[in-house]
Write a structure and sequence with these properties.
- With 159 residues, the protein is mainly beta.
- The chain has a single domain, classed as Porin, CATH 2.40.160.
- The protein contains 1 helix and 8 strands.
- Strands 1-2-3-4-5-6-7-8 form an 8-stranded antiparallel beta barrel.
- A hairpin with a 5-residue loop joins strand 1 and strand 2.
- It starts with a helix and ends with a strand.
């Protein structure tokens, strides 16, 4: 009987129409550890009200003179956000995981990594928003730098 009630409740919840959205972001920013380096990338996301899903690709440039490795990440993330903007801003928290590739000269490592962070999407004009994001990446395996912090600003299109 409890299972039947749970199934009816779950069916009712899933059948209620909700606002779906998708968005795309192009970004540029900065990554740390061991030195500051330029980060560039893009993100594609979709979601329902407070839960969203996102794929993000990022590339951080190598600085051989400073012994700072390049870092490329491809991460799948879950976002938890307000269902609507508050004072034209929509804050969010995110967590996820995926693959990274780190290299410096002839040393390289490809493995799994996780990331946690958050940010805000700021409404500008119509579907165009600014996005400010901060993430901490924890890299598994034997990377040169196992923890990398990254922040970025980006242009976000909501559709």
């Amino acid at each position: 009987m409890r299972l039947a009630r749970l199934l009816v409740l779950l069916s009712a919840t899933l059948s209620v129409p909700s606002i779906a959205w998708a968005d795309a972001t192009l970004f540029i920013g900065d990554a740390t550890a061991p030195t500051n380096r330029t980060a560039r990338g893009f993100a594609l996301g979709a979601g329902l009200l407070i839960i969203g899903f996102e794929f993000e690709y990022s590339s951080v440039v190598e600085k051989i003179g400073d012994a700072s490795p390049s870092l490329r990440t491809g991460m799948g993330n879950v976002l938890f956000q307000t269902p609507f903007p508050i004072l034209r801003m929509q804050p969010y928290f995110t967590t996820g995981g995926g693959v990274y590739h780190e290299s410096l000269a002839d040393i390289s490592e490809t493995n799994f990594g996780i990331n946690n962070g958050g940010g805000v999407k700021i409404s500008l004009i119509g579907p165009i928003r600014a996005r400010i994001d901060y993430r901490v990446f924890n890299l598994r395996g034997s990377p040169i730098e196992d923890t990398v912090q990254r922040w970025y600003v980006g242009l976000n299109l909501k559709f």
